[in-house]
Amino acid sequence: MTVSEKKRSGSDPESVLTHLNRCLDDAAGETLASSREALRAEGLDPAVVEADGLALIERQLGQQRLAEARGALDRLRGWIQRAADDTRDGIQQVREELLAYVAGEMPVAALYRGLESIEPEDQESLLADIRLLELWNDRDDATPGD
Asked: Fewer CB within 10 Å: C terminus or N terminus of the chain?
């Protein structure tokens, strides 16, 4: 490129970028060609080296994806376990409060306002629910692996 061409290209950003891209393409082409020649000089096939490199990259990306998936799964399992623990604790607390109420150890107002006004059929249903909670809790306690 002559001095006058450089001056002209310097005033136009688009032509400067075009020139820069052309220079980078030439340098990359030279580097690629010289790299291939160096590999051949060592007795290696550039196509095989490229294929092996791509396969290595794919394996490493697969391992990275697997590690990320395992991490996400571990976080999900932890969240599920915490939710199960919180639920079990909440059920146990409700069970204990209801049993204390039924046993007469807890004032009605402390458990639920208006509980005294529950119809007899609803009281029977509530007691059945308490028994169901007890069975559910006993089943959870008997489940192996907890």
From this structure: C
